[in-house]
Write a structure and sequence with these properties.
The structure is a homodimer of 343-residue chains.
Chain A (H helix, E strand, L loop, with lengths): L14 H8 L3 H8 L7 H13 L6 H8 L4 E6 L7 H12 L5 E6 L4 H13 L4 E5 L17 E4 L9 E5 L1 H14 L5 E4 L6 H17 L15 H14 L5 E4 L2 H13 L9 E5 L3 H4 L7 E4 L2 H16 L6 E5 L2 E3 L9
Parallel strand pairs in A: 1-2, 1-3, 3-4, 4-5, 5-10, 6-7, 7-8, 8-9
Antiparallel strand pairs in A: 9-11
Chain A binds a DNA duplex (16 and 16 nucleotides) through helix 2 and helix 4.
DNA sequence: TTGTATGCGTTATCAG
DNA sequence: CTGATAACGCATACAA
């Protein structure tokens, strides 16, 4: 498609190339291309055609230099697996609207030095704002108050209450899990979850126990079973649980991974799901939840919505409307076969 | 940390601010900060201190505008789950070396229009090169030959042989799976894999059958069992297989997901792994492979290495050393409990 | 309606 | 050794 008339290999056409080709001045070309109304229709046409012909693409660097804004936002993550970051990224992109803003994703891999480095790289490229995705729901250290652009923390909040953080309400998520189980007819509920040192484990457990207390129901097994965030713990804990409290008719698993282990052990022990016992997880991680047998009911943390809201708040902050503190989003139960008979 | 002397909220310090603060000219400040040796040590110190004090961060836009290079590379993906892209991104970042180049990740979500849009956004931001990650190992349409920057295709090759593509050799991967099983004492091997319309399925199957033929071994079950890329198919196919060919002592599963289904069915059928039957998957996806029981042996496609090589080739192309065609990387078996007794 | 000139922040070239 | 000054590509106030 590129004719001999276009740029030499590697250099793209500039506004002045277009102006020359159209036989007008740079200023006129600029006006024509930007839809300014101080230009004759015929002239505009000529410029547009020339731009088309030369495959002209305005240099965003020059534009940004002039405007002070680059239409670029940095998304800083420490989430190696991309488990959280990708949905959040997608939500943010949606909110910014195609074409207006591009998102620059950097993975710090849990390394503070690498993170600092990426912040520098992003700032030097003059991003208009920063979204920081925590690697867990635990509070993380702030990037600081003296950054030249607004920052929004997502998933895991900043330790500094002066910063703005957008998180999922994990206590409520725990409540919702219980309420769903009760609504589908369960009364003898146990809770197997991950490492107690994680806020996600503690918060969801708090929600579970609070909801049970409100409903006047016991926590089967007497206490929350904290352990590790993997299938092996789900399996082991389930065996333990069924020995100690065979009457259990529902298990709240602290994550979909743990839930997979729970399901595995239940199959092995000959329990039929959901007839004998129901299971619900957290995260609604498709690859795990939709491949289990039966498919796994799970509390969706609405990561995309988190990203969308973060982008919106960032936009507002860039316009001077700065907020502080922690903003919580409610999660949502996605019902599948492990809690309701119809798969 | 920011004193009153620094910029008004939002505006970051410029080189001229630093120069003024240090009592020198802009030119001298620039030289001092860039380690040019035409500046007195004492002067350099003064400039450096001023820059430090003002939290000066050079404007990469201005730099890029002048230099024609931005130290930025676009990574275009269609991999919603981040399954392939994140490791490839990490490999590329490693190869580029911290600080020199930043990577801009965009997710086209399998939408051609969105992809075109992202390409435009990246080009207008004057990235120095583009890495395109395919959504499968099937060949994908080329971005075209008339782009102003070099492009490297990764994971899935470009349809245009004039482009440079870096891929994993899936035929060889299939061979390696068989060779590993045979090396660990198996002789009666079957192959359960995904959708036959995928190159990944076809290529790995070709490698499996070729390796078996070379070794004079039969393909148990008589033919490759093509199906879907999920656990349910792994379970169903395994039941079918054990009915038709109970003598099977090893299964090559076309992906880790399928392998999980295979393991599940084998447990249910009372087969002990790996004593009675061995299983090997592809992808070495940690979340699946390390959480199965026993842990899953899998063929690692070396995605990070793919990213690293892509970055290197892109660098070379940016320096004018342009290559064409498809470059293949060998995969590597990661041995775990499903093929060897010691878990 | 069109063109000229200025400046965004930086580096490089050339005078002093 | 240091300091003016000219680019880089674009948008805009202002002059014609």
């Amino acid at each position: 498609m590129s004719t001999d008339e276009t740029q030499a290999r590697g250099r793209s056409a500039t506004l002045s190339d277009v102006a020359k080709a159209a036989g007008v001045s740079i200023a006129t070309a600029s006006k024509a291309l930007n839809g300014r109304d101080q230009v004759r229709a015929e002239t505009r046409d000529r410029v547009l055609r020339a731009a088309e012909r030369l495959a002209f693409s305005p240099n965003a660097l020059a534009k940004g230099l002039l405007a002070g804004r680059t239409g670029t936002v940095g998304l800083l993550t420490s989430d190696l697996e991309g488990r959280f970051s990708i949905p959040i990224l997608m939500g943010a992109e949606d909110a910014f609207g195609a074409g207006k803003v591009s998102v620059f994703l950097c993975d710090a891999r849990g390394d503070a030095i690498r993170e600092q480095h990426h912040v520098q790289a992003l700032l030097s490229r003059r991003v208009d704002g920063l979204i920081v995705v925590g690697s867990s729901t635990d509070a993380r250290s702030s990037l600081g108050r003296d950054l030249p652009v607004p920052v929004v923390y997502v998933y895991g909040p900043s330790e500094d209450p002066e910063d703005l953080s957008i998180v999922t309400d994990n206590v409520d998520a725990g409540r919702q899990a219980v309420e769903h189980l009760v609504a589908t007819g369960r009364q003898r509920i146990a809770h197997i979850t991950g490492d107690a040192s994680y806020a996600a484990a503690k918060d969801r457990a708090a929600g579970v126990t609070a909801a049970l207390a409100d409903l006047g129901l016991p926590l089967v097994g007497d206490r929350v079973m904290f352990g590790s965030w993997n299938e092996a713990w789900g399996r082991g804990a389930t065996r333990l649980l069924l020995e100690r409290a065979p009457e259990v008719d529902a298990i709240v698993a602290g994550s979909d991974q743990i839930a997979r282990g729970v399901l595995d052990a239940l199959h092995e022990l000959g329990r039929e799901i959901p007839r004998d016992i129901a299971v619900i997880g957290f995260d609604n991680w498709a690859i795990l939840a939709t491949n289990s047998r039966p498919q796994l009911t799970s509390v969706d943390l609405r990561l995309e919505e988190l990203g969308r809201l973060a982008a919106q708040r960032l936009f507002e902050a860039m316009d001077g409307d700065v907020r502080h503190g922690v903003e919580s989003l409610q999660s949502r139960v996605v019902t599948r076969g492990t809690t309701t008979p119809s798969n």
